[in-house]
Write a structure and sequence with these properties.
globular; 19% helix; alpha+beta
Length: 128
């Protein structure tokens, strides 16, 4: 990647983060594993709204944005409403994918899971 491409990619990441849509990420590649952390969220024009949870446990809603190559979140304690700031680094692709497009960005320490369950959607709806 040349310097111009790096600058363009950096600007794109800073402004947009992930594309508009609904996402599920987990510390495991498989959904609904006991003891693993998951995040389900929507992105709309750089604004993030979602929840962090462990299966068969409570969940915490959050809002956030993409800034400085990070997903910056304000997580709301489900018991007392206190907000906690948390950030996850974006994994920025440095190569194009096999179809010639840029590979999708990811979240450091998390794996994207393509199937969003009814329970994930229910949690997301509660936090919207």
């Amino acid at each position: 990647m040349d310097k111009n491409q790096e600058e363009l990619l950096g600007q794109t990441v800073t402004k947009n983060g992930l594309a508009n849509g609904t996402y599920l990420y987990g510390t495991s590649r498989k959904p609904d594993e006991i003891g693993q952390d998951y995040m389900v969220f929507t992105v709309h024009q750089g604004e993030i709204q979602g929840a962090v949870y462990m299966p068969r446990s409570e969940f915490s809603c959050f809002t956030g944005t993409f800034e400085d190559n990070q997903m910056k979140m304000s997580i709301i304690d489900p018991y007392d409403g206190t907000r906690y700031n948390y950030a996850i680094n974006l994994q920025i692709p440095t190569t194009a994918s096999t179809n010639g497009q840029w590979a999708e960005m990811g979240l450091q320490g998390y794996h994207r899971i393509n199937t969003i369950s009814q329970n994930d959607q229910k949690i997301l709806d509660t936090c919207s």
